[in-house]
Amino acid sequence: MLTRASSARRSAVAAAVAILFSTTALPTSAASDTVKVGVLQSLTGTMAISEVTVKNAELLAIDQINAKGGVLGKQIVPVVEDGASDPAMFAQKAQKLIQQDDVVTVFGGWTSASRKAMLPVFERFHALLWYPVQFEGNECSPDIMYSGAQPNQQILPALQWAEEKGYKSIFLLGSDYVFPRTANLILRKHIIHDGDTVAGEEYVPLGGTDFSAVISKIKLAKPEIVFNTLNGDSNVSFFKQMAAAGLPSSKLPVMSFSIAEQEAKAIGPSLLAGSYAAWNYFQSLPDPANKKFVAAYQAKYPGQPVDDPMAHGYLDVYAWAAAVKKAGTFDPAKVAKAASTLTLADVGLGETKFVNNLSLSQTAYVGELEPDGQFKILWSSKAPVAPIPYDPLSFPGKTCVH
Amino acid sequence: MTESTLVAGQVFNGISVASILLLAALGLALSFGLMRVINMAHGEMLMMGGYISYLATSLFGKEPGFFVGLLAAFIGTALFGALLEVTLIRRLYGRPLDTLLATWGVSLILQQAARSIFGPIGVEVTAPSWLAGSLAVGGTALTGFAIPAVRVFIIVLAALVLGGVAYVLTRTPIGLYVRAVHQNRAMAEALGTNTRLVDLAVFSLGTGIAGLAGAALALIAPVTPTVGQSYIVYAFLVVIVGGLGSLTGTLFAALLVGLFSALAQIFTSVSTSDVLLLVAVIAFIQFRPRGIVARSSRALEAEV
């Protein structure tokens, strides 16, 4: 009797549980028409100036794909999180997106510090991060898609351009943190290897405003061109003080690696006019797909410029959607694999392709900044440049194969 | 450019940096020395001056706008300083740690206000054309050593401000009151000096000078919501090395810090010279904890 009663009770519990499950199953089956992705950029703090626009571009791509029916018949629902310009916050929010929100992939990050902080999280959960910004290379994670340029796709093409133009003596100037230090390490190896001279190498603390000594040293070294990896506001002081010291860009050319259309607008295009920049995308690219992208973005954000990291954020979403379609699943490992078999030619950057090291093969450009804040394209690599995460001259013996 | 012109150039640059430091630190030295108020929002007074200069140049054009901006920056930030003194600082006298915390809060509020009003992206102040040039010494601009007109202007401005403050403090009745309060607050009060008014005047003058400095520095540096942060640490260094509330000390400290970093930068990078500077300052205050000019102020001694 007793056992029978308890078994009856147990079956009642089981039935209740079954009912609960079936009722909770109802909304999930309705929700299965959607799929969640994470968008993780700094919406506050010092990096917000740059990252908010990347977030906008990523959301634009999601909207456009949704308007065309989504992926695998599902509408994409972006879960936007704020990394707050703080690497620890990026790691925390990445984990939240993966564990709590159950997103199938994450688009985001800007600074190398934020990427380094998120990397262990993505590797632990085998989730997939799409990283849109040019960086110093030297990293090879199976769980990150690096669409921003590797050093051999931005810095070294700029060196090639400078050498073709006949500049033989190069001064390296940067803010004092990981990207300029690594970029200049690689540049120095290549400059010496090519038989040219490094006229000098100087670093200024992030946010530094006094360049008087640096300018004196530049004058002493008499370089033919300056390669500039200064970040943010320091550029305002540098260019103003160069002009005041009688060295505007027209007298001593400057090639910048961290000044795109957004930064040019912030710093003041009139101050920078005539200086050069190397990127893999310019708003002024004549590509018809780019014209469409710029028009769509400016329809939403009138008068706002579009730049390289934004274009990469936009491309990342399209690349993910195409890879999901190809793989027929949202499984991160399969999506990453499928992505490296696809060629993307219609998102504005010309012909691009993720290769087996999960970085993007893409064309390199050199542009000259005009007073209206747009770049006149002076040079491009003849074909897309294959990404090399570990520069063989600077880091011999290291390769990246998954 | 040769090695010797580099050294000559760096001496000039050191004096130029010293003039910037002097402008940034003078107001701080005044209020810190007289009232022992650690004004963490001092950098934001510079920032405010920069934005006022931007508003003036966009309203009145480059030429008159710049001078209107200098004047408006001085008056505007002085008035803001007065408001700050009456509403906040006055209520926290004798509690240096509390003023530190409260003014830090003010600093954050002002940064966010600038961000909300002018946007997170900086604004541009362009120099009048006669300030944009430079004077080449010993060769052309590329080979020789150039003295930028704008740096000469800032040196002259710093000298004028220093002279003006020195004149006010030593030659005018207001200065007499200020010195009296500085030497012995209780006694001055007992003799009928309105110390609250003196404090108010000195604090406003200090913030006004910071605003003026901000308007001038907008010519060579960015104007952004956070620009004040890049000056405040050096300004405090100068005040500490110079000795509390001493004009002569502040002048010498600014020259010392400016020339030290400029000359160190001949041999090392900017980052390393910053480290060397901080090490030198730490060593210096071990031996002279009260700065270059240790004032025998009873008011200070009573508290130390």
Secondary structure elements and pairings:
The complex is a heterodimer of chains A (about 400) and B (about 300).
Chain A: H1 2-31, E1 34-41, H2 48-67, E2 75-82, H3 87-99, E3 106-108, H4 112-125, E4 129-131, E5 144-146, H5 151-164, E6 169-175, H6 178-193, E7 197-204, H7 212-221, E8 225-229, H8 234-244, E9 254-256, H9 261-267, H10 269-272, E10 276-279, H11 288-300, H12 308-327, H13 332-339, E11 343-344, E12 352-354, E13 360-361, E14 365-369, E15 375-380
Parallel strand pairs in A: 1-2, 1-3, 3-4, 4-5, 6-7, 6-8, 8-9, 9-10
Antiparallel strand pairs in A: 10-14, 11-12, 12-13, 14-15
Helix pairs in contact in A: 2-12, 3-4, 5-6, 12-13
Chain B: H1 3-35, H2 42-60, H3 62-87, H4 96-118, H5 129-132, E1 134-137, E2 145-148, H6 149-171, H7 173-183, H8 185-190, H9 195-217, H10 229-242, H11 247-267, H12 270-287, H13 298-303
Antiparallel strand pairs in B: 1-2
Explain what this protein looks like in three dimensions.
- The complex is a heterodimer of chains A (402) and B (304).
- In chain A, helix 2 packs parallel to helix 12, helix 5 crosses helix 6 and helix 12 crosses helix 13.
- Chain A is an alpha/beta fold and 402 residues long.
- Chain A folds into three domains: 32 residues; 189 residues, 3-Layer(aba) Sandwich (Rossmann fold); 128 residues, Rossmann fold.
- In chain A, the strands form three sheets. Chain A has a seven-stranded mixed beta sheet with strand order 7-6-8-9-10-14-15, with helices on both faces. Chain A has a five-stranded parallel beta sheet with strand order 2-1-3-4-5, sandwiched between helices. In chain A, strands 11-12-13 form a three-stranded antiparallel beta sheet, with no helix packed on it.
- The longest helix of chain A is centred in the first third of the chain and has 30 residues.
- The termini of chain A are far apart.
- The radius of gyration of chain A is 24 Å and the shape is globular.
- Chain B has 13 helices and two strands; from the N terminus they run αααααββαααααααα.
- Chain B has a domain of 212 residues.
- In chain B, 75% of the residues lie in helices and 3% in strands.
- The chains are: A alpha/beta (402), B mainly alpha (304).
